[in-house]
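Customer escalation, tier 2.

The customer says the design service returned an amino acid string that "doesn't look like it belongs to this structure." They asked us to rerun it and document both sides in this ticket. The original structure tokens are below, unchanged.
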């Protein structure tokens, strides 16, 4: 269709993203996107292509090869950067590949201080893969800043933190961690998967890199595997883009589109996850069959005061101690709405036993040291009706 010169063309005045001062929900819906210039499609198209035709040798239209550039992926990256308050979003094929890309900016002999109670896959990658390549790791309880300081070496280049941790729901003070890292000339990377940027934005308090498994809350519908990094520093972003281009851990365009679809409702879903998580935690804390309930939103949580300062909400992740593997098995086998499965962060509720599932690859003595017992059960509380969730748990706990 030809353009009518009598009609003002304001397309150049339209921003790809709403102003940074816009509310979280506005950024979730609009950031990184604009209507398709050809058709006006309000959702970014899925650019399902591996390569791009170039008008002539030495000149292209901004895209050459899909491992390096893809418009659907770029829309997602702009969206995630806006939600975390950073300048650069970098999407990956999984959360682990995002963490691995940061590790690939290091060299033989470099040292990393990591929270000890990390996701089991992260622990496995650090201990059984990257350590063989000459990168050294120290694992500490980051609830105690002194332990982190004592683990710092001259060759320390990175602090890797998870808060809340998986599955014990421990917290570290992100502002203090940033001070420790920067005093040592190191970077601070924070896995923000459990909290999401709706509840916590580590870059605002000094973190250098935020990592997500976009598989979880950001996508929210249990239908994609993905990961992402968000950074502010231009040089660091350039290096991470180079690592991704050189190693190839890119998400496909359909995966990027699915995560982008998910982030549009993140603010709505997280309000429900936060509310249901609190209701479930309060119910479990008071149940006679439960020995301990781990949830930062509870006043009984030892770091509740830090949680209220550092977080805007406490997520839908809850862990409970039932005392034995047998009791844990009976509990998870008897729920109906809470599906026994790996993963978390979907609209549906999920339940699992970390010692036999997400943390099975962690050495038993290390699991015991972290408090991940055979009787620990982790719940990802979905957005179903609160009364139905509580009834499901109550029925499953009876007789324990």
């Amino acid at each position: 269709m030809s353009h009518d010169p009598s009609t003002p063309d304001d397309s150049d005045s339209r921003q790809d993203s709403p102003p940074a001062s816009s509310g979280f929900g506005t950024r979730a819906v609009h950031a990184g996107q604009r209507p398709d210039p050809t058709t006006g499609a309000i959702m970014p198209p899925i650019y399902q292509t591996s390569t791009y035709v170039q008008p002539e040798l030495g000149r292209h239209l901004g895209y050459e090869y899909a491992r390096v550039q893809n418009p659907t992926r770029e829309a997602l990256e702009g969206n995630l950067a806006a939600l975390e308050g950073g300048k650069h979003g970098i999407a990956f094929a999984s959360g682990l590949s995002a963490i691995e890309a940061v590790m690939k900016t290091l060299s033989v002999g470099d040292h990393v201080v990591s929270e000890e109670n990390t996701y089991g896959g992260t622990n496995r990658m650090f201990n059984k893969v990257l350590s063989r390549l000459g990168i050294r790791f120290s694992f500490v309880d980051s609830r105690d800043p002194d332990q982190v300081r004592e683990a710092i070496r001259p060759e320390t280049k990175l602090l890797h933190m998870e808060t809340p941790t998986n599955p014990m729901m421990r917290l570290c003070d992100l502002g203090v961690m940033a001070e420790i890292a920067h005093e040592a000339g190191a970077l601070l990377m924070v896995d923000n998967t459990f909290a999401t940027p709706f509840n916590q934005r580590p870059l605002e308090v000094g973190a250098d890199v935020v990592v997500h498994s976009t598989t979880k809350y950001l996508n929210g519908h249990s239908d994609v595997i993905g990961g992402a990094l968000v950074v502010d520093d231009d040089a660091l972003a350039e290096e991470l883009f180079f690592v991704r281009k050189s190693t190839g851990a890119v998400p496909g365009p359909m995966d990027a589109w699915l995560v982008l679809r998910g982030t549009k409702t993140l603010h709505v879903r997280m309000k429900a996850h936060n509310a249901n998580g609190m209701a479930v935690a309060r119910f479990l804390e008071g149940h006679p069959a439960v020995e301990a309930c781990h949830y930062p939103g509870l006043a009984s949580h030892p770091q509740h005061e830090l949680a209220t300062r550092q977080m805007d909400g406490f997520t839908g992740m809850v862990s409970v101690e039932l005392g034995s593997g047998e009791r844990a098995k009976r509990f998870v086998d008897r729920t109906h709405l809470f599906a026994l499965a790996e993963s978390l962060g979907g609209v549906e509720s999920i339940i699992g036993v970390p010692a036999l599932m997400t943390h099975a690859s962690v050495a038993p003595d290390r699991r015991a040291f972290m408090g991940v017992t055979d009787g620990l059960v982790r719940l990802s509380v979905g957005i179903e009706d609160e009364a139905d969730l509580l009834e499901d748990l109550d029925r499953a706990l009876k007789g324990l």
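Tier 2 assessment: The sequence is consistent with the input. Residues 2 and 343 are 50 Å apart (CA to CA). The domain at 266-397 is CATH 3.90.1150.10 (Aspartate Aminotransferase, domain 1). Sent an explanation to the customer and offered a walkthrough call.
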